[in-house]
Design a protein that fits this description.
By secondary structure, the chain is α+β, with helices and mostly antiparallel strands. It contains six helices and 14 strands. The chain has two domains: 136 residues, Winged helix-like DNA-binding domain superfamily/Winged helix DNA-binding domain (Arc Repressor Mutant, subunit A); 133 residues, OB fold (Dihydrolipoamide Acetyltransferase, E2P) (Beta Barrel), CATH 2.40.50. The strands form four sheets. Strands 7-6-5-8-14 form a five-stranded antiparallel beta sheet. Strands 9-13-10-11-12 form a five-stranded antiparallel beta sheet. 28% of the residues are buried.
Length: 275
Amino acid sequence: MTKTAEPLPHAIRPVLSFLGKAGQRASEERFRLLSQIDREGSISAAAKAVGISYKGAWDAVHALNNLFPSPLVVTQPGGRKGGGAFLTEEGRKALQAHQYLTERLAAFWAELEQDMMGSSDRAVSPSPLLWSFAMRTSARNVFHGIVESVITGAVHSEVALRVSDRTLLTVILTNKSAESLELREGLEAFALIKASAPVLMIDEGQTRLSARNQIRGAVLSVEDGAVNSEVLIDIGDSKVLTVIITKQSVETLAIKPGEPVCAMIKASQIILGVE
């Protein structure tokens, strides 16, 4: 019977992360959080089990839901202040896929180490050969979407990207960029938006604005820093927009959880990415 290779003492352990088309990662820690949410039925209990903060757990959940076409985690009534949380069918599939691939990767790594360290003429650690060179992005908001239309002008192209049932983003980019990305109707793409890009206003439903992107939603939370505040906005389909504005602006607008707001984003401030 063939014996399964065991990892060498003090060997580097491979870690499996899922990489989105725009370079964003769903790390091993986030999948451990998914596993605990499935077990505990609670964001706070899962965060404690994994060893991260409650806010960190929520940030991870929002990032995962934004990354995948369908939400992986949904919450029951109570939201951030209470209630339960559970994995969707898509969430369980993603978790099972990660667990299966992690086991396969560990077995492959152990066999590779044994093979490459087995003889003196080729005794070399495989670790440097298998580093991931995947790109990371500094953008706080990365949304998966489907291209609904591409209108080509003399110099620029206008792209409509559907990221949720109620949110359609308009993106302006050069014709050369649109051609390079091979943008077309039905194509999966990712929108990258810096947290500092949106301008917030209280949504009273009567103000008329010239901004192409007027994303409406309800405030989930407000986290104050020394100078700026981080505002999380529910924009539908479990997608969350993160916005950074000054504390003074938060006070002036009286922004608080549950408040309807409108985030205005210039079409030229959104970056598109495809595989």
